[in-house]
Design goal:
The chain has 263 residues and is of the alpha/beta class. The chain is built from ten helices and ten strands. The radius of gyration is 23 Å and the shape is elongated.
């Protein structure tokens, strides 16, 4: 979403935290471009105004376009774990409308889904969904508008966008990333536990089989190729958490082994 020139803006914003480096603003901004300068100003303002207590607390939450389209925020809201008001700026609605009116069928469906999710949120008891007219006239970039508006309102940002997540963190703004929440809620598995998994295809290494848990976690089964097409009991040997998700390594359970707690 953000042009590569904005990276220079991020560097500029970090430089602004040191008074002696702030005099480099004019020269660096020329190289960063207009968007980079906007990024620098937005991050600098947020960093200057946000203290530790503001980062930890914030009943108000601004919802990003990505989190609306993703849709899981409606499921989270149903559970009652979201408190405070959910704010949707008009410029986010305009972005959804542009998607819904676009020529690309995929983007058009995403835009329509976004409006359906907002309607769902409106109908949920205990949820305060508010559409606000606040704008940030000095920038056209939606991400920068959200960051500046969050700074002004002392609000957090709900998103699934990795780049916006990082920018908000640099700005000292509270971030609620739906993807991080989903990863945190996945059950912890320990070596020695027994799982049941449907082996659906071969792995990369000779003899390996691959299956998936209900939450989409990949399970790589050593010597599991012979179990393809079957549901098998496997013993966890290790687990790996990466930026792309969680991966579990296992081996087929021998008949002589006892059942584990998850078998």
């Amino acid at each position: 979403m953000l042009a590569s020139a904005t990276l220079a803006g991020v560097a500029l914003a970090l430089a602004l935290r040191a008074p002696m480096l702030s005099i480099a603003l004019a020269g660096l901004a020329t190289g960063a471009g207009a968007v980079g300068l906007e990024m620098a100003v937005a991050l600098h303002r947020a960093a200057e105004s946000s203290g530790p207590s503001e980062r930890r607390h914030g009943a108000l939450k601004l919802i990003d376009t990505s989190a609306i389209i993703d849709g899981r925020i409606a499921d989270i809201a149903r559970t009652g774990f979201l408190d405070g008001a959910l704010l949707v700026p008009r410029f986010v609605l305009r972005e959804l409308q542009r998607l819904a009116d676009g020529a690309d069928p995929l983007k058009r469906n995403r835009g329509k889904r976004g409006f359906e999710i907002l309607q769902t949120l409106q109908g949920l008891p205990g949820i305060s969904l508010q559409f606000i007219d606040d704008d940030v006239a000095e920038t056209r970039e939606v991400d920068l508008k959200l960051l500046e508006l969050a700074r002004r309102r002392g609000a957090g940002v709900v998103t699934t966008d990795y780049n916006l997540n990082r920018l908000a963190e640099l700005s000292g703004i509270m971030v609620l990333n739906v993807n991080d929440l989903a990863r945190a809620l996945k059950p912890v598995v320990l070596p020695g536990e027994v799982l049941r998994v449907q082996v659906v295809r071969e792995g990369r290494e000779p003899g390996q089989g691959v299956g998936f848990l209900e939450d989409g976690t990949m399970v790589v089964v050593d010597q599991g190729r012979r179990l393809m097409g079957q549901e098998a009991a496997v013993v966890v040997t290790s687990a790996l958490q990466t930026s792309a998700g969680r991966m579990i390594f296992a081996r087929a359970k021998a008949e002589s082994e006892g059942d584990g707690p998850n078998a």
